[in-house]
Write a structure and sequence with these properties.
This protein has helices at residues 17-24, 39-56, 103-118, 133-141; strands spanning 2-3, 7-10, 61-65, 71-78, 89-94, 123-128, 145-150, 155-161. It is of the alpha+beta class. It has one domain (2-120): Gcn5-related N-acetyltransferase (GNAT) (Aminopeptidase, 3-Layer(aba) Sandwich).
Length: 163
């Protein structure tokens, strides 16, 4: 578990899936990325990433508000099992109620500290759609550099080297 000023980042549990599905299955919340069509798809996505955690040593965390215990997000480091070959990426997905409050930046800072200090990863990648200005700004503020546009994904590819 990782603790930040306002958040707890912990390994997902099966009991988290209904709360995660409220935004991972919401087309508005996931407008710039994959949306789970059913609770079963959401459960499978979380389970596949947890299998990768056992293999790689990292995977997205359930993001809880420290004060209330409410699940507001899912994110962290992963080597995408559904689109492999890009290396270790950072991803973050939040309930729309949590947008615009700095939680993405708080999560990203904690994730990059883990990548640098614990996992000693030489670089972390990220993707953002051109129209997702908030995500692009967050990545740039965190030290990511836009490398190129990937037309087949309709996304910009970013990298951040270990500091």
């Amino acid at each position: 578990m990782i603790e930040t000023e306002r958040l707890l980042l912990r390994q997902p549990r099966l009991a988290d899936v209904p709360a995660l599905f409220t935004f991972l299955g919401d087309p508005k919340a996931m407008q710039f990325t994959h949306v789970d069509g059913t609770l079963k798809e959401c459960r499978q996505r979380v389970a596949v990433h947890e299998w990768r955690r056992r293999k790689d040593g990292y995977a997205p965390w359930t993001v809880e508000m420290k004060k209330t215990g409410r699940i507001i997000g899912w994110g962290g480091l992963y080597d995408d099992p559904f689109d492999p070959g890009w290396g270790v990426e950072i991803g973050y997905y939040f309930h729309p109620d949590a947008w615009g409050m700095g939680f993405g930046s708080e999560l990203t800072k904690a994730v990059l500290r883990e990548a640098d200090e614990v996992l000693k990863l030489p670089k972390v990648a990220a993707f953002a759609r051109p129209e997702n200005a908030a995500s692009r700004r967050l990545l740039e503020k965190a030290g990511f550099v836009e490398i190129r546009y990937v037309p087949e994904m309709q996304r910009f590819y970013f990298e951040r080297l270990r500091t």
